[in-house]
Amino acid sequence: MTVVGTFGLSVRDQALEADVQAGLTAVEEGLLEATKSEVPFITEAAQHLVRAGGKRFRPLLVTLAAQFGDPYAPGIVPSAVVVELTHLATLYHDDVMDEADVRRGVPSANQRWGNSVAVLTGDFLFARASHILADLGPDAVRIQAEAFERLVTGQILETAGPADGRDPVDHYLDVLSGKTGSLIAVACRFGAMMSGAEETVVDVLTQYGERLGVAFQLADDVLDIASDSHESGKTPGTDLREGIATLPVLRLRERAERLGLAEDKELVELIDSDLADDARLAEAVARLREHPALEQARRDTVRFAEEARAALAPLAECDAKATLVELCDAVVHRAG
Known about the structure:
Shape: globular
Number of strands: 4
Helix content: over 70%
Largest sheet: 2 strands, antiparallel
Mean pLDDT: 90
Distance between the termini: 24 Å
Order of helices and strands: EEHHHHHEEHHHHHHHHHHHH
Low-confidence stretches: none
Oligomer: single chain
Number of helices: 17
Strand order of the largest sheet: 1-2
Radius of gyration: 20 Å
């Protein structure tokens, strides 16, 4: 048994391990090539987060999904590069909206060069992704465009908040399906589709990716509260400071309204106050870490990971499927 990737996945089959490692290495090379520009400053800004590392979660899913067809098909690595470039571009834009100072353990692009450069660098990455995508055919272009529309719609819905009478938790889970699940679903879909897998297999893996994507983001929500900056790569409580109601906060509000406990209401008031002060933010994070709402968010993460696992049931047993199942466990492990 050997281990690959930052998730510590155990791969029992040496051929599968070699394919995954080779695929991820090729993707890394493709990312560096795609982020080069004739203008040295653009190259520096565009490669800022590439060189900072990252889990490469989406490329990993592309390479694993490709195992259900021809894993050496020519479109697999370029499609993985497209998905990761798109993800990286959204990070540049997210950090501007969140006014984040740290990303992946390094200063965010907006903190280093300002908001304008960060936004334009994200646009540059979108352009490079589109250039690669054009060579993958009209179906790939359409799939990516639909996913990108869902991603942006999810981001807008998060900003707008739930409509009157809509359950905030249900609204938030819909937001995550678009904002995160859509692109992770595309990673699985591209890997299977580019490998020539059967359409039923492509559909199964797409459904798996959507559910796993929601679980993945919920784990990030938990990490924003439960981990330090070394573990998560960003400042703890960033979402709290920006007033973003992630699942732990939504579960807290739900509990405060249902039970009416004074300590719950006090914590809600603290979270709703101005958290620009580092001491107040640290207090809010510390109190939420000890609150049952965080454990409820962990259980929600487990539920979506189990749904992802269940979606794989129609697939024949193989090492690639076993690894995808283990990936569900790895996502849950991130949430503690």
